[in-house]
Amino acid sequence: MKKTIVTLLLGLIFVGLNAQDMYSPSKNIKVTFNINKKGQPTYQVNYKNNPVVLPSIMGLSIKDANNLTNDFEVTKTETLSFSESWQPVLGEQSSILNKYNQTRIFLNQKNTNNKLNIVFKIYDEGVAFRYEFPLDKTVKYFTISNENTQFNLTGNHTVFWIPGDYDSQEYAYNKTKISDIDNSKIDLNNGVGLKSITSQYRVQSPLMLKSSDGLYINIFEAAVVNYPIMHLDVDVKNFQFTSNLVPNALGDKAYLRTPSVSPWRTIMVSDDARDIVSSKMILNLNEPNKIEDTSWIKPMKYVGIWWEMHVGLSTWDYAGSQNAQNAGTAFGEMIPSGKHGATTENTKKYIDFAAKHGFDGVLVEGWNTGWEDWYGKWKEDVFDFTTPYPDFDIEAISKYAKSKGVKMIMHNETSGSVANYERYLDRAFTLMQTYGYPAVKTGYVGKIIPRGEFHDGQTMVNHFNFVAQRAADFKIMINSHESVRPTGYHRTYPNYIAAEAARGNEFNAWSNGNPPDHETILPFTRLLGGPMDYTPGIFEIKMNAYDSTKTEQVHTTLAKQLALYVTMYSPLQMAADLPENYQKHLDAFQFIVDVPLDWQNSIYLEAEPGEYLTVVRKDKHTDNWFLGAITNKDPRKTSISLDFLTAGKKYKATLYLDGKDADWKDNPKSYQIITKEVTSKSDLKLKLAPGGGAAISFELID
Fold first, then answer.
1. Angle between helices 418-435 and 458-473 (to 10 degrees)
2. How far apart are CA 394 and CA 368, in angstroms?
3. Which one, 551, 572, 601, 693, has the greatest CB density within 10 A?
4. Span 650-699, pLDDT tens digits
5. Among all residues, which ones are annotated catalytic?
6. Where does 134-201 show beta strands of DSSP type E?
């Protein structure tokens, strides 16, 4: 049941009173708003009486009009306290508390009488604010040319950052001081196919920082709707970050009309890293669920024809050329290579494996025509999303999957041709309905069409949100890849079940891979905005198992791959490796079979960005708990109290641990499985190998 308490504290006119102090419910966070001598709106943030953000300018530049930057006065403020608990359709916990103090500040620009409101919501874990463009007598259309929001920090903090690339987030994180941020020093031979880095000193949000005195700070945004993604320009000498909005093909940032709002700009702060990684502030700042019937939105654990292409055993395209030599050739004349992965026979093998182990779905990539000529050509009519290759019998496969109790997951790669996908969208979703596909994985590899648009611009934000909205009409769940990074929109459209939008596990198959600290950073950055389809569960760690000349490998132990199912929350999880590799380690594979995807409660026991993370989650439908613990390149010993278990109950604990000689590089597949009886009074001592982890299931004993 949803409980909401709203208390209106103040609604008075303050002419000439430009300063306003605002506090979080706990009083630990104080925000001071002011109008400086130039009439510029400013804010500053303190945490437990210590400065976090120094006075920072706010405002927006408007194309061919008066800028909303200065000459302002405060005409009124409205303040309220708000508290509600609401239930997500799927999530890390079954009930989420949304509690904050809010102040809306009404501004008037004296020389123009233009109106601008700034709304602050102050939570115990952070601050959020956004711009409101109110309707004033008549509707006004305007173009944002820049947003001038500043984040002036107090010192040369340690920062976890990736470059401000308008087209990709698929980078490994850098850990430096703010003063050492420099995109020119990045090794760009990193497997990222499309790079659009236009500034030496620009980074992406969410941005995770740590001060020398132990404060954890995160700069991000929430509820990006009809607006471009915010990157951050860096003044490395003065430790200042300024919002940088991704432009469109004409160089404009956003086309808006009154009334409208910007996304929320967020600053999380705490002296405990667990408060950052467990925060639901981003989710709370989004609009409530707009889908009336959500009974069809369900978690999915899946396998699929995907990894075999990444390791070179099969191809996406029927002819195996991927160089357009067969483009336009009739199927009867096209010579198959024999390596095509998406065949009827191969798909049935995956369906059998999924059914045997109780998995929900099977993903098949490369099922439809167009893969011979799909990448790097900036071609508009690349896929039609409805025509299968001749060796993929979509009707027979659908019937076979249904007979086995398995759902098929559609794959719609667009090759960045968004205009083409939108033309076919209803036909693609109708095909899915016809053959009983409840979910689709979309892909946006390559440069965007309409030409000149970036992945992170307003046009693409609107596209990704529209696809989720339209999919809801067809009762289809969305898992987007190469999309904008999520900012909590899955609260509003919970069928937007997952996204990639970061450097995923596949980079380990064919590039310099993801360093061992990568998965310890993502929960503090990318995952704050929404679930990630990271595709964990790789058991054959070294790629020379497929080709003796290969040196690439996954930069974790096998036990850490299991732990990722708990540490990286998603209601959509893939067992990404090949079925034959799981057959060799069915004892370890059992954890993937057992781990749920929807949770009643989650408790972050230990957390330090870039170093380690330990989280325990309770299954939504039973009294069973599951624990994941991961570390970076350094080995780690820790003792875990099991006081989260129900008092007076006994549990069977199955521990999937690194072997005594395990090491991510030298001996990654060394693991051990231990079973013992435990209670809430028990402690467990864990030893994590370099790049290692631990996964534990706690099953209630009747």
1. 20
2. 10
3. 693
4. 999 999 999 999 999 999 999 999 999 999 999 999 999 999 999 999 99
5. 506
6. 141-147, 150-153, 158-161, 174-177
